[in-house]
Design brief:
Blueprint lengths: L2 E6 L7 H8 L5 E4 L8 E5 L2 E5 L12 E4 L4 E2 L1 H13 L8 E4 L3 E2 L2 H14 L11 H9 L14 H19 L7 H15 L4 E2 L1 H10 L4 E4 L23 H8 L6 E9 L2 E3 L12 H9 L12 E3 L1 E2 H11 L3 E5 L9 E10 L2 E3 L11 E9 L16 H14 L3 E5 L7 E3 L1
Parallel strand pairs: 1-10, 1-11, 2-5, 2-10, 5-7, 6-8, 7-9, 11-15, 14-16, 15-19
Antiparallel strand pairs: 3-4, 12-13, 16-17, 16-18, 19-20
Bound molecules: guanosine-5'-diphosphate, 6-O-phosphoryl inosine monophosphate and magnesium ion.
């Protein structure tokens, strides 16, 4: 068997959580491969909304195993809060969740370092979620990190202390005012560690290898989006992990030849939260409408998301990097009522018209070239069959399929599990 991947193709928040939940009934194992609690994956079913940060989005199904892979960074405090919420809803998570021993831990001082670094950057800040993601991945590549498996060793608290002391010195180095009470943060952290230890820690690459050998089906769930990838995103305004397909091989220990389908998920328009370039960003009424109708507020930080038209130059790039085999278009319902729909098909770049993503897409270098299509009026939110979709939306879909050369297999018309149209 092969591992299928589900990845965001834009700047995150494409609707990955919803689609993983929709697809989970086809899989035995759902595995998160990177990122951490910077992610906020929203699921809606039976009139209830759930937001997951570290826990894979298959957790509400009875039969699937949900694995937190080695590429993920875990904040035990946030993880415990997620577990508490699941318990309130009667979800038996202990039998369904597994954590890789090789996943790294986010310490309270990682969060403080994130805040210190962002404050020190001032106007040039990344707009990080302040969850300690960057500092934790820095300790991973710097070979200083503490991993889940270390919690099974006797001396881990000594290592913790040494690292936390070093972090405190580093916070001082940033020379900014950061208020904190480390004793309080640590009390919460150590309590959460005990809860984390109630979840089975496993050698996850071995587990996945054996699962594939015994014909189990696996879906790897990405976090963030391709344009936030540490290598291929809009650096330095990116996250600190590989959010693209290769990140799944690294973040789970799956050989490249074992990857099956790559599901690429995108919104019918574009959003971005945090700093960084965004060529098709709108500052007018259209952008305001997208934000209002699409409820574009971050699931993790509550920040308003910036909105703009679909950027096909960036989307094509993401499809290439990931080897996308099937596309899923989300939030088509949000565009109902727009008279004209614009799609960016090229950039004006240094006096030339180009159709690839250049090294730098800052506003001063790049301006979008748009193609206009007819909009549709119909409310899509009650539709559940492809035949019901309005003609103009079908034209939009066909246009995108032709430009990208990849079929759009799902059109999402609302946040609920049921508001999903298969084509
Ligand atoms: P993720 O991080 O990729 O899982 O996406 P988020 O959960 O952060 O953001 C997607 C938001 O859009 C959530 O509030 C979802 O409930 C919502 N959503 C998902 N699909 C649709 C859709 O087709 N239409 C509308 N209107 N909302 C959607
Ligand atoms: P999901 O999985 C949208 C953005 C932050 C910031 C940058 C770096 O829900 O799609 P970080 O905290 O990772 O150091 O922040 O990345 N970012 C996201 N934007 N969705 C996400 O996750 C994000 N995770 C991080 O806003 O610009
Ligand atoms: Mg999100």
């Amino acid at each position: 068997m092969a591992v299928d991947l589900l990845l965001g193709l834009q700047w995150g928040d494409e609707g990955k959580g919803k689609i993983v939940d929709v697809l989970t009934s086809n899989y035995n194992i759902i595995a998160r491969f990177q990122g951490g609690p910077n992610a906020g994956h929203t699921l809606v079913f039976n009139g209830q909304k759930h937001v997951l940060h570290t826990i894979p989005s298959g957790i509400f199904h009875d039969d699937a195993v949900n694995l937190v892979g080695n590429g993920v960074v875990i904040d035990p405090v946030i993880f415990k809060k997620e577990l508490d919420k699941l318990a309130e809803q009667g979800v038996d998570y202990v039998s369904k969740l597994k954590i890789s021993r090789k996943a790294h831990l986010i310490l309270p001082t990682h969060r403080l370092l994130d805040a210190a670094s962002e404050t020190a950057k001032g106007k040039a800040k990344i707009g990080s979620t302040l969850k300690g993601i960057g500092p934790t991945y820095m300790d991973k590549t710097g070979r200083n990190g503490i991993r889940v498996g270390d919690l099974e060793l006797d001396d881990w608290k000594i290592r913790y202390r040494n690292l936390a002391n070093k972090h405190e010195a580093m916070i001082g180095f940033h020379n900014v005012e950061i208020q904190y009470d480390l004793d309080e943060l640590e009390a919460e952290f150590f309590e959460a560690i005990e809860v984390l230890k109630t979840i089975p820690f496993i050698d996850s690459e071995e587990y996945i290898f054996n699962a594939l050998e015994s014909e189990k089906t696996i879906l790897a769930e990405g976090a963030q989006g391709s344009l936030l990838d540490i290598d291929f995103g809009t650096y330095p305004y990116v996250t600190s992990s590989n959010t693209t397909a290769a990140g799944a091989c690294i973040g789970l220990g799956v050989a490249p030849g074992k990857i099956g389908d790559v599901f690429g998920i995108f919104k019918a328009y574009t959003t971005r939260v945090g700093s960084g370039p965004f060529p098709t960003e709108l500052f007018d009424k259209d952008g305001e409408t997208m934000g209002r109708v699409g409820h574009e507020f971050g699931a993790t930080t509550g920040r308003a998301r910036r909105c703009g038209w679909l950027d096909l130059v960036a989307l094509k790039y993401a499809c290439q990097i990931n080897g996308v085999t099937q596309l899923m278009m989300m939030k088509a319902d949000v565009l109902s009522g727009f008279k004209r729909i614009k799609v960016c098909t090229a950039y004006q770049y240094k006096g030339e018209t180009i159709s690839h993503l250049p090294f730098n897409i800052e506003e001063k270098n790049v301006s979008p070239v748009y193609t206009e299509l007819k909009g549709w009026k119909a409310d899509l939110t009650g539709m559940n069959k492809a035949e019901e979709l309005p003609e103009e939306l079908n034209e939009y879909i066909h246009f995108l399929e032709k430009e990208l050369g990849i079929p759009i297999k799902i059109v999402s018309v609302g946040p609920d599990r049921e508001q999903t149209i298969f084509r």
